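Budget justification aside, the reviewers requested a transparent look at the raw inputs and outputs of the sequence design task funded under Objective 1. We therefore reproduce one unedited record. The lines immediately below are the structure tokens for a 134-residue chain.
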């Protein structure tokens, strides 16, 4: 929580609740998910507050916005380089912290100095596989 003071984010109780919900959260929630969870404690909180707080955090590099779920943006408070697995059925997103040694040829690199990558693996999770009896 301390670090948010440094980025100049005014810490209202509502924003603190949003930050608290995100801290260590590995579910990659959407803005709607966050709103649902946090408005239980703060019934007067508006969706706009959640949305605007997420925008501010994203601009300051405190959360990542993931676009792997085509239906809605998902947010990741873990801003360290990592990869993702996504279930095509239930849209669950799981972190992968392995390093893949991807070699990118000089011509593909187009003069870029490569500093990172993000791999999205798609599949069907165990739970969904079971539910569909395959
Ligand atoms: Zn699934
Ligand atoms: Mn993640």
């Amino acid at each position: 929580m301390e670090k948010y003071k440094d980025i100049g984010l005014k810490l209202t109780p509502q924003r603190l609740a949003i930050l608290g919900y995100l801290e260590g959260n590995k579910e990659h929630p959407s803005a709607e998910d966050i709103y649902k969870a946090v408005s239980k404690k703060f019934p007067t909180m508006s969706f706009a507050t959640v949305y605007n707080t997420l925008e501010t955090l994203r601009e300051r590099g405190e959360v990542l916005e993931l676009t792997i779920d085509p239906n809605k943006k998902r947010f990741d408070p873990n801003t360290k380089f990592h990869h993702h697995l996504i279930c095509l059925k239930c849209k669950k997103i799981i972190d992968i912290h392995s390093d893949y040694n991807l070699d990118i040829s000089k011509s593909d690199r187009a003069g870029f100095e490569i500093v990172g990558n993000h791999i999205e693996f798609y599949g069907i999770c165990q739970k969904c596989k079971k539910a569909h009896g395959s």
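The chain has two domains: 2-76, 83-131. The pocket of manganese (II) ion (ligand 2) is lined by residues 28, 76, 78, 82, 84, 95 (CB under 6 Å). Computational costs for records of this kind are itemized in the attached budget.
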